[in-house]
Design a protein that fits this description.
The chain is an alpha/beta fold and 303 residues long. The protein is 51% helix and 14% strand. It has 13 helices and eight strands. An eight-stranded parallel β-barrel has the order 1-2-3-4-5-6-7-8, surrounded by seven helices. Helix 10 links the parallel strand 6 and strand 7.
Length: 303
């Protein structure tokens, strides 16, 4: 209920204008790793020094201007070059809608193919982010096509709250692949997605352990400490090799808990978004956990 209400309120134009006007006062930069490629690489370098990898996301989605989609592609190419030059442990995540999926799947594929080819040349890989459910099919189709073209250089995201996801995992388990498992952050109807937090947590556990059992590389992406411990217990019971999984959190959220895992020798990575088009991303982060909204409100009161 909290998530649904916040997403509904945030969709109002007056609320959007207020948040954009007072971003600094509200502490929005807590969730965003700067506005430039250089700033993002600096964040990755800082994380690496503490034993944590990074995955970069150029903020922006639902791009419907061909030139804007090209600009996003070029930013990713520059980012991959800069990260390689800096020698940081990082890969990139791309939303298909940011590179023109709303224009056509062919447009998105053309841009993604360029990005993945550059990632391969820089000895890293690309994750296709998952967005709202209307884009699930096209995202998985792009993923399969790119993974066939560049084996092992492409991953995608599976959202535990979608009713369809167990079947998607089964269809994609014909060979080992790369998956990030998340709960899901978009506003979806109950016919499409689970609503109760306990049901979503149970679905997440089944999805993460099922993907590991099927032989995939799995990024377990959650700030739910109890859920993370539940997955970790399964991993330890089966003596799962550490090169088969990693723990992920979002920039600005739950870093202390992740750092404890990294210091214990567990593979860890932080999702680092950057850029100017941050509103939709930050709203989803606030909607995920009341604690995130509390951080922003405290920053506003102190300001």
């Amino acid at each position: 209920m909290y998530r649904e209400c916040l997403l509904a309120v945030a969709s109002r134009s007056a609320v959007r204008r207020f948040v954009l006007r007072h971003a600094a006062l509200l502490g929005v930069d807590r969730f965003v790793g700067g506005s430039s490629v250089a700033a993002a690489v600096a964040v990755a370098r800082r994380l690496n020094r503490q034993g944590v990898g990074a995955t970069f996301d150029v903020l922006g989605e639902d791009v419907r201007d061909p030139e804007a989609a090209e600009r996003v592609r070029e930013t990713y190419l520059a980012l991959l070059d800069a990260a390689a030059a800096a020698g940081v442990d990082a890969h990139v995540s791309v939303k298909p809608s940011a590179v023109g999926a709303a224009l056509s799947a062919a447009t998105a594929y053309e841009h993604l193919e360029r990005i993945v080819a550059r990632a391969q040349a820089r000895d890293t890989y690309v994750r296709l982010d998952m967005e709202h459910s209307a884009l699930t099919d096209v995202t998985l189709e792009l993923f399969r096509a790119l993974d066939d073209r560049f084996p092992g250089r492409v991953g995608t995201v599976l959202q535990a709250y979608l009713h369809r996801t167990p079947a998607d995992l089964e269809r994609l388990s014909d060979r080992p692949r790369r998956f990030r498992i998340v709960k899901g952050a978009y506003r979806e109807p109950p016919t499409v997605a689970l609503r109760r937090r306990r049901d979503i947590a149970d679905a997440f556990w089944r999805l993460a352990t099922g993907a590991l059992a099927a032989g995939h590389h799995v990024a377990v992406a959650t700030h739910d400490v109890a859920l993370r411990e539940r997955v970790l217990a399964w991993i330890r019971l089966r003596d799962c090799p550490r090169d088969r999984y990693e723990w992920q959190t979002l920039y600005g959220v739950g870093y202390a808990e992740l750092l404890r895992l990294a210091w214990a020798g567990e593979p860890c990575r932080i999702y680092v978004p950057f850029g100017e088009d941050w509103y939709g991303y930050v709203v989803r982060r606030l909607a995920e956990r009341p604690e995130n909204l509390a951080l922003v409100l405290r920053a506003w009161v102190r300001g």
